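Handout, section 4.2: multi-component inputs.
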Amino acid sequence: MVTSSTLNYQPLYKQIKSLILQRVIDGIWAPGSALPSEQQLAKEFGVSQGTIRKALDEMTAENIFVRKQGKGTYVSQHSANRSLFHFFYIVSNDGKRVMPDSRVISVIRSTANKGEIERLDLKQGEKVVRLKRIRLLNKKPVIVEHISLAVKMFSDFGKKEDIPNTLYELYESQYDVRVMKAVEKLRAVKLKKEDAIHLELPEGTPVLEIDRTAISLDQRPVEWRLSYIDTQNYFYLSELT
Amino acid sequence: MVTSSTLNYQPLYKQIKSLILQRVIDGIWAPGSALPSEQQLAKEFGVSQGTIRKALDEMTAENIFVRKQGKGTYVSQHSANRSLFHFFYIVSNDGKRVMPDSRVISVIRSTANKGEIERLDLKQGEKVVRLKRIRLLNKKPVIVEHISLAVKMFSDFGKKEDIPNTLYELYESQYDVRVMKAVEKLRAVKLKKEDAIHLELPEGTPVLEIDRTAISLDQRPVEWRLSYIDTQNYFYLSELT
DNA sequence: AAGTGGTCTAGACCACGAG
DNA sequence: TCGTGGTCTAGACCACTTG
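Output:
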């Protein structure tokens, strides 16, 4: 008899991986907290320490966990450092990373437009929150951001809490949504009149447009962010391997 | 007695890794050829198969090797697919990857200018080869590239052989230089007059500038490439994790 | 069937951090 | 000194490729 086992074959450590991932998604281990030790997990799942290790190794490579030798394995959280720098690729001309500041221009609620429906995987008529803000580097406006979120995921966004500099931390702490990945499409465009005011530049100046969709741990689109960047003194850094 | 062993500590598999890397750099295993099996390497280096495996695992992650289950481990080469796509992040508006064609405009030799000295780590007065070419997507010019190479590394570049579409393959096959990494700085700028002619666009059109330095296996800068891209119908794709 | 990479185990020991 | 992650081994077996 031909079994389907050969088709369904998944290495043990991959299976362990999804079991562990599910726990993270379910919030059984909070971001920042330590996991049980490898030995404990091995005992619990009934596999060897090496197998647990291989699962955790892969998840650490995916930035789901952080390991600290001699201490333990931790559920990674978007620390200020990480959310600013790991997803923030704007660098000053001398190559140094810079800490951006931000100022909110507006927060409005509306019905999703075509771009939002597409990128956030919404249905016609669903509601969104739109946040417009500028980001400053060395006190000068450099980026205008247009951010869209689905209301169903972020119902009271901007109503009760202040909007912090690093949004991904807020999504995680207040809405239990963890951004793990982002896809960016870059192009050069002419600065629009409405954005020109905020960047204090003439209309038509070439700016870098970044069309970013942020994806959560469970593969759902979380945020659509359209940024316009003045790259006269800063650039976007990309390292390819 | 306090030994320095604790300071010099390097895991066995790291040591094995550098021994193996040296062989690749020395060309003892040609690109595309198969390595000895893990068991053979283990025997040769006097370690266990698992240790060899860990070394090869890391090097595979670094794109130095390619593994094929049931067949062997191979020294990776820049196949057309890889050099086009792995270092080529321009995608059409519908998200599909496109195969660029290229047309050489000029090849000249000169003394290195300031930018070249800096990026290629040259001394004042050293010679460079400059290649200017356009790249076409669907028969239309989309990219102008200004490429600079150190003459000392690529002495007869452009003299005897035709210049192929995929330069990194040429560097590898003719000059024994393997590009393993590239750093790109992106910004939006106004199209210059000299480039405008080639892209068939008005002077001043916003274009994406990519300032790329390619780095070899042994960490030396190999190539400086300044590209200007018309992003009206194409964009630059960046995936962050 | 033979050979290769891929997985898994059980157990040992090392380096690191904290008490 | 203890507990944690990190390394290493020897040996077994599985899945994939080729003859």
